[in-house]
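ok trying again, last paste got cut off:
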Amino acid sequence: MNKILSILLAVIVLATFAFFAVGSSDGSSAAVSQDEGVTDGNKTEESKPLTVKVGDVLTTDNLKITYLDSGVYTDYNEYMGPEKGNKIVYIKLQAENIGNTDAYLSMFEFSCYADDIAMEDYIYGDNLFSSDVISSGRKMSGYMYFEVPKDAENIEIEYETDYWTSNKAIFVVE
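nice, full thing came through this time. structure:
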């Protein structure tokens, strides 16, 4: 009985290692469709994150994210406005689930950096990009808002395209 139990335990351990080895392989990719063509998004040690500009389409294994617009948001209530010396910027995205299963995506998966300093979300804007689940073949769209210094020169919204490899795409706020 002990011999059978030992063999069964060894098979379970090996199966677990095999599962994690297959699951952690870099089989994912991301690409940005631009006027010039398609840029491969597989990140290597030397490569930089993908850069996405207004009008570009970021395509991952399961999502197609179209960068529709960006700018400064001024339609806020006087009591919910930015702190003195700051402004509110927005980006508008449309996401389509091109995979076979539900995709999970929300504005909280995006991080804003102004001149390489992390910024806070601004959640009081209109038509927020707030869905968590997108069914296969379905789309969602909306705005994300961030509070940044008025004099910020380089504003970027970062999105991790692959959890396992930490590949990233950078949406440039224009």
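cool. The chain is about 15% helix and 45% strand. The chain has a mean pLDDT of 81.
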